[in-house]
Design brief:
four-stranded antiparallel β-sheet, 63 residues, alpha+beta
């Protein structure tokens, strides 16, 4: 069963990269009711990316 409503997922085929302005760019898909609407990027400053990395590590280490 497909989840209803809006959803944002990572694009598995596109890697996270450093943008020209130095920000970290995470490629995402925007879907509604399982239907693709747009590609977008989550853009984080290096400091924001470090915080996210620490939070992800903490969650993964807790498993």
């Amino acid at each position: 069963m497909t989840a209803r409503g809006w959803r944002i997922d990572r694009i598995p085929a596109k890697p996270v990269r450093r943008a020209e302005d130095g920000r970290v760019s995470v490629p995402l898909w925007l879907l509604r009711d399982g239907v693709h609407h747009s590609d977008l990027d989550l853009r984080l400053s290096p400091a924001e990316a470090e915080v996210l990395r620490a939070q992800l590590s903490s969650v993964l280490d807790a498993q």
